[in-house]
Design brief:
338 residues; alpha/beta; 2 domains; eight-stranded parallel beta barrel; two-stranded antiparallel sheet; 10 strands; globular
Length: 338
């Protein structure tokens, strides 16, 4: 599989990386088979996080025997030095390794800087000096923080949502990272499941010649699709541009990316699905969303007290209560017509 230099890290990573959030949902044996198949196909870049339940352990179990041939990236949600090092030691243990290639600060609300009160940036430098990490990165869902990270040149890599739905401002961010020689790791390449044509967003991201997508992979057929795309990359021709433009028009405006930072909801509402359910229903098989289970879940929206917790946590500054109410109206119209 073709490899690309990940910015100033100098790491040569596969053009498609493996995003390991979804392997939380499969068994240890299934994840081992999937991860080994990805490795055998040429994928050498695997991204996970401290907070992804057993994802790190599954990667360690499957890939420790080929550790020297792969690039491991993980993340810490720590907000202080003490938690930073506790998370780091646990990640090393789970991943069955004595060093992590890219250790990332996981979606901080403000950019950690040298000497600030969090101590996080200084902890990255200390961990690098000790040899426990090779490079320090940052992930974020907030464009202003991501832009500040690039402008500061403090971090070796930036992980940020990027897909064929991305805005001109997002494109400018990728270009700025390239100019600063900061490795750009593209998360949510399928926009949290809203994009169902992997070929179009794959081609769009490939066109930047800098962004490295980490595809969330759970099933062998998903892996096979991305391997096939890597083996025979499509061209960004007029037909592909038409698909991308159609998606942009249909999903224009504010939409939920499904990141889940809004959760938990005091009323038990699954905000990250319910706030975009009709969009998902237009792009996926409808049956799972119209059964009694999801009908009951959608009716929980009636209990929303607009407490503001979800809006305060949303990194995209959306208005989840308004989105939920609109979706409930559209959902009821749909199911009543069945």
């Amino acid at each position: 599989m073709e490899k690309i230099r990940l910015g100033r890290t100098g790491l040569m990573v596969s053009r498609s990386g493996f995003g390991a959030i979804p392997i939380q949902r499969i068994t240890a044996d299934q994840s081992t088979a999937l991860l080994r198949k990805a490795y055998d196909a040429g994928i050498n870049f695997f991204d996970t996080a401290h907070g992804y339940s057993d994802s790190e352990e599954k990667i360690g179990r499957a890939l420790s025997s080929v550790r020297k041939n792969i690039i491991l990236a993980t993340k810490t949600p720590a907000t202080n030095r003490k938690d930073f090092f506790e998370h780091l030691e646990l990640s090393l243990k789970r991943l069955c390794t004595d060093y992590i290639d890219i250790y990332q600060l996981h979606n901080p609300k403000a950019l950690p800087r040298p000497g600030d009160e969090t101590g996080l940036y200084d902890a990255l430098l200390e961990a690098k000096k000790s040899g426990k990490i090779r490079f320090g990165g940052i992930t974020n869902h907030r464009l202003p923080v991501a832009r500040e990270a690039v402008e500061s040149s403090l971090y070796d890599t930036l992980q940020f949502p990027f897909s064929s739905l991305s805005s001109e401002a997002d494109m400018a961010l990728v270009a700025a990272a390239k100019e600063k020689d900061i490795g750009f790791i593209a998360m949510k390449g399928l926009a949290g499941g809203l994009l169902t044509n992997a070929r179009s967003t794959f081609t769009f991201i490939r066109g930047t010649n800098h962004a490295v997508p980490i595809w969330g992979i759970e099933k062998p057929e998903q892996l096979a699709e991305f391997i096939a795309l890597e083996n025979d990359p499509p061209e960004l021709d007029d037909a592909m541009r038409e698909i991308i433009e159609h998606d942009r028009v249909e999903l224009a405006g504010a939409f939920c990316r499904g990141c889940g930072y809004c959760l938990p909801c005091p009323e038990g509402i699954e905000i990250n699905v319910a706030s975009r359910i009709t969009l998902l229903m237009r792009r996926m098989p409808v049956a799972p969303f119209v059964g009694s289970q999801w009908r009951a879940k959608m009716e929980l929206i009636e209990n929303c007290k607009e407490c503001g917790q979800c809006a305060a946590r949303c990194p995209y500054e959306l208005d989840p209560p308004s989105m939920l109410k609109k979706q409930l109206v559209e959902y009821r119209k749909f199911v009543s017509g069945l």
